[in-house]
Write a structure and sequence with these properties.
Elements (H helix, E strand, L loop, with lengths): L9 E5 L9 H29 L3 H19 L15 H9 L5 E8 L3 E9 L2 E7 L3 E5 L6 E6 L6 E4 L1 H18 L9 E6 L6 E2 L7 E2 L4 H7 L8 H11 L3 E3 L2
Parallel strand pairs: 1-2, 4-8, 5-9, 8-10
Antiparallel strand pairs: 1-11, 2-3, 3-4, 5-6, 6-7
Helix pairs in contact: 1-2
């Protein structure tokens, strides 16, 4: 199976794309017919004008062309979104810029019941289930503790939160179970649960954990695991097809 022609990873978002309230192709064909028919009538009308002096056919031709062009102008054809669907997502921006088309990315991937994974990256190194840490200047905790502490950016207050790494691993297990139910050979896949800070300059003991990264580090980690080839291109395509049942391409 051939590799994709794109240079950057495809990006998917949750749900299905909105369908237009009309048949786009049917309307487009009707407009083409109006303009082409108008041109034909106008050409025939030119001969008729010279032969009979009648302006009926030329006028009819011009009206058909004008009607087609006007309909084209006022019709609400869906336009491809040129700007990012996630313009303020710094992590997604970096992943798109630093990874290649051998990967694809799912943003806000839905999980039952009512949960979602912030970002999923699928590539040769496996499936990377990524959660975003709250913005803070410092985090303290370890993999086994029930609570982590963090200092929200701009304050000196120490705040507690439930261990987000444990929560991310639970979400990754739900993703694995879903894919297994859909017939994917999950035993062949390495699943990675990661947490990423949305800032470059951040401190704390949690960054000693191999699953926790500052903003600029995670893409490098994903690329480092590529030579292990947990996945081949055929399995990556199978995963993309299965996961597309819950999402659509946004970039």
């Amino acid at each position: 199976m051939s590799r994709p022609p794109e240079l950057n990873p495809k990006v998917y978002g949750p749900g299905k794309p909105e369908r237009p309230s009309f048949d786009v192709e049917l309307l487009a064909n009707f407009i083409r017919f109006e303009v082409i028919a108008g041109g034909g009538v106008l050409a025939v009308g030119g001969f008729a004008l010279r032969a009979t002096g009648s302006y009926n056919l030329p006028v009819l031709g011009m009206l058909l062309i004008a009607a087609g062009l006007l309909r084209l102008w006022i019709s609400d054809f869906p336009q491809e979104e040129k700007r990012s669907a996630y313009p303020k997502d710094r992590l997604l921006f970096r992943l798109k810029r630093e990874l290649d088309a051998d990967h694809f990315i799912a943003a806000d991937y839905p999980l039952p019941p009512g949960e979602s994974i912030d970002l999923i990256v699928v590539g040769y190194g496996g499936i990377f289930s990524i959660g975003k840490l709250r913005e803070a200047s410092r985090y303290t905790g370890d993999a086994s503790s029930e609570k982590w502490e963090y200092i929200p950016r701009g304050t000196d207050a120490i705040t507690e939160m439930s261990n987000p790494l444990k929560k991310q691993k639970e979400k990754t297990k739900k993703l694995r179970d879903f894919l297994a139910q859909r017939g994917v050979e999950v035993g062949r896949i390495e699943f990675h649960s990661l947490l990423v800070s949305m800032k470059h300059q951040v401190e704390g003991s949690v960054f000693d954990l191999e699953e926790v990264f500052a903003l600029g580090e995670v893409a490098h980690y994903i690329k480092e695991l590529r030579p292990q080839k947990s996945l081949d291109w055929e399995l990556i395509n199978e995963l993309e097809k299965t996961m597309k049942e819950r999402m659509h391409r946004v970039e």
